[in-house]
Each structure stands twice: as structure tokens, then as C-alpha cells.
Design goal:
By secondary structure, the chain is α/β, with parallel strands linked by helices. The protein folds into 2 domains: 186 residues, Rossmann fold (3-Layer(aba) Sandwich), CATH 3.40.50.450; 145 residues, Rossmann fold. It is 34% helix and 19% strand. It has a 7-stranded mixed β-sheet with strand order 3-2-1-6-7-14-15, sandwiched between helices. A 4-stranded parallel β-sheet has the order 9-10-8-13, with helices on both faces. The protein has a two-stranded antiparallel sheet with strand order 4-5. Helix 7 packs across helix 8. The longest helix has 22 residues. The N and C termini lie far apart (57 Å). The mean pLDDT is 93.
Length: 371
């Protein structure tokens, strides 16, 4: 057993943004590590809504997290606390009498609600949006430690985020399956994957799954180059092709494909796969089909890698609190876990470096990147 830290008696955990495999593993690890230090642990429902809108929850906005509550959840996808990618407390959507919606900063109200419940510190689990919120709360005096979560792997300061490995593994399995049906029908199959403005999922799964072309946001594409690759394969007797497209990919001189923009939430990307599939069919004359993996990448059980890194992150977050660390994010710096300032971690998005070994590998393998 660990000695109780005098400054901390009660902590809270929140999971925000899109869900990712491994969230429950983080929760369990942090809860057990905190309980072993004699602390009480509470989960905030649906991001910060449990504090900002507690009346919406039948059992209240806070859940007491005991050993029984977190038993047997390591392998489960999703999050037992719920999450949301709406209702950013820094830009909270509020409907006016005239029906219009304005964004209001409710961060001070959030901090007051946090302190009124006798909570001493917060473990905030989330992606770039959640870490940005955590950084602002920290600058306003709240004791915060962040844990990086996103299937997109676009958070700076950490080599990898949990959830990414599961997303890449599942995408690779799907590409394996699509190869057989594409070959049987001599088709081109376009596979659209998540990742927002970073191409990590598309690139790593595309290489792992032997894709013929991979389109990522970091390299604006010329579809004529992709069509040429498909036709070259045709001449070599390879009558099918697999094209992986990141949802944030864009044509040279063009922009990303956006489904919707709403007050209080990030713009929704999507639709690029359909455009690419339609244009490739016109350019090649080959029958082309589209598969959008979408939210399938977010669900399901985490891989063993994600389970392990999630639990390492959760335990490390509690150690950070015990050691008096504030305003930091847990980060993987193999072979160890370290802490980076939240401000540094949220300064810029981590995109795929164009000179990275992974990009060079794709080119050496003859994979078309659209340029």
C-alpha cells in the first residue's frame, strides 16, 4: 500500500471527445492506483456535463468509483463514464430567446462546481480538444493531469496515444478481407478511414494491409496519379486495387470534405471517399466500390498494446498527482512514460512528417501517395 498524500483526498476522472478503445482500462488503472493511496475517486459523466448539467443524469453527474465499479472493464470498449464531443465548456452552446445559438465560456462555473464538491484534482482523459480544455482549466488554478486518448494519434508530445493501435489493427483486418472480394470481382475498392486532419491511421494500416494507394491530409493528391497506378496494375495482370483514403485527405488546390459545421463542436469531416471512388471509376473505367469504416474504428475491445499503454497512462497520472505535478500530460517516450506540459502538448497537431521512415517505406514499396 502507498502512503496517503496529504494534499489529496478526492479526485475526479473525466473522459471527453470521441470514444476510443482503452478508455475503460485507463479508468480502472487510475481508480485502483488512487484507491491504493487512500483517495476517493469520482467519475464525471459525459465529459464535463456531469458538473455543468447534473440534473440531466438520474444518478447525478458524479459517480463514486469503487473497486466493484471498475471490476472487469479493462477489455471493454467505450467508457463507463460516457463522453461527448459537444458542449465544450470553453465554447458552450447556449440557445437564445430568438432561437439563435451563441458560444459561452463556462470554465469558471465549471471550476466552482468542481471545488464545491470537495474535489482536489482532475484526471482528464481525451484528445486535442480535451487537452486544450484541461490546459485552460489548469491555467485558471485547477489541479489537472491529462491522459492522451485518440485513435487519430495526432496529439503532440507523445509517441503514441492509446486507441490508435486498435484502430490500425481493425482497419488492417478489414483491408485483408476486402482484398479477397476486390480480387474476385476485379474491382477497385476505396476505403475511407477516420483520422481527421492527420493521416496516421490511413498510412499505417494501408501499408500493413498492402494497399496500392494511400491518400493522407499531409500530401494533397492528384487522382490522375492514382488512376495511372490502377491502370499500370491492370496492364501487369493485377485486375484489382485497394485505395485507402483518410477522411481529411484533400486534392491538390482543394480543401477537405466537410459534412457539417455546428456551434459548440468541431466540424465533421466525411464524404471524401465517395468523391474519390466516383472520380476513379470515371478515370479508369473500372467498377469501383466504397467502404466507409467510420465509427467501427472507435468501437470494440482494445488490443493488448492499447490495454497495456492505457493502464500505464492511468497509473502514471495518479503518480503525477502524488508527486505534486500540475498542468502536465502523461506521454509515452519509449521505454518510459514521462510528463509534458499541457501547453506544450496542445501547441500544435502531430501530423505525419513527410520525411518519416513510414512515408519512405510506402514509396519504396511502390505505394502511390497521390503525388
Amino acid at each position: 500500500m502507498h502512503a496517503q498524500t496529504s494534499e489529496i483526498k478526492r479526485i475526479a476522472i473525466t473522459t471527453g471527445g470521441g470514444d476510443a478503445p482503452g478508455l475503460n482500462a485507463v479508468i480502472r488503472a487510475a481508480v485502483l492506483a488512487a484507491l491504493n493511496r487512500g483517495w476517493e475517486v469520482y467519475g464525471i459523466r459525459d465529459g464535463f456535463n456531469g458538473l455543468l448539467m447534473p440534473e440531466q443524469f438520474i444518478e447525478g453527474g458524479l459517480i463514486r468509483l469503487t473497486r466493484d465499479r471498475v471490476r472487469g472493464i479493462t477489455h471493454l470498449g467505450g467508457t463507463i463514464l460516457g463522453t461527448t464531443n459537444r458542449d465544450n465548456p470553453l465554447k458552450f452552446p447556449v440557445r437564445q430567446l430568438d432561437g439563435s445559438v451563441v458560444e459561452v465560456d463556462r470554465s469558471d462555473e465549471l471550476i466552482r462546481a468542481f471545488l464545491m464538491r470537495g474535489l482536489d484534482a482532475l484526471i482528464s482523459v481525451g484528445g486535442d480538444g480535451s487537452m486544450t480544455i484541461a490546459n485552460v482549466l489548469s491555467q485558471k488554478g485547477l489541479w489537472v493531469v491529462g491522459v492522451p486518448k485518440t485513435i487519430d494519434n495526432d496529439l503532440d508530445g507523445t509517441v503514441i496515444t492509446f486507441g490508435f493501435d486498435t484502430a490500425v489493427s481493425f482497419t488492417t483486418e478489414c483491408l485483408d478481407r476486402l482484398h479477397t472480394t476486390a480480387a474476385s470481382h476485379r474491382r477497385v475498392i476505396v476505403v475511407e478511414v477516420m483520422g481527421r486532419y492527420a493521416g496516421w491511421i490511413a498510412l499505417e494500416s494501408g501499408i500493413s494491409g498492402s494497399a496500392d494507394a494511400i491518400l493522407i491530409p499531409e500530401i494533397p493528391y492528384d487522382l490522375n496519379k492514382v488512376a495511372q497506378k490502377i491502370l499500370d496494375r491492370e496492364r501487369q495482370g493485377r485486375n484489382f486495387s485497394i485505395v485507402v483514403v483518410a477522411e481529411g485527405a484533400k486534392p491538390q488546390g482543394g480543401s477537405v470534405s466537410v459534412i457539417s459545421r455546428e456551434v459548440g463542436r468541431a466540424e465533421r469531416l466525411g464524404g471524401i471517399g465517395e468523391k474519390v471512388a466516383q472520380q476513379l471509376q470515371e478515370l479508369t473505367g473500372k467498377e469501383t466500390r466504397l467502404v466507409v469504416l467510420g465509427h467501427l474504428l472507435r468501437g470494440g475491445s482494445p488490443t493488448s498494446f492499447d490495454r497495456l499503454i492505457a493502464q500505464r497512462f492511468g497509473a502514471a497520472a495518479v503518480r503525477a498527482l502524488e508527486n505534486g505535478q500540475r498542468g502536465v500530460m502523461v506521454a509515452l517516450d519509449p521505454p518510459t512514460v514521462r510528463y509534458v506540459p499541457l501547453e506544450e502538448a496542445t501547441r500544435r497537431m502531430k501530423s505525419v512528417p513527410l520525411d518519416s521512415d513510414v512515408i519512405l517505406t510506402a514509396r519504396d514499396l511502390g505505394i502511390c501517395l497521390g503525388d
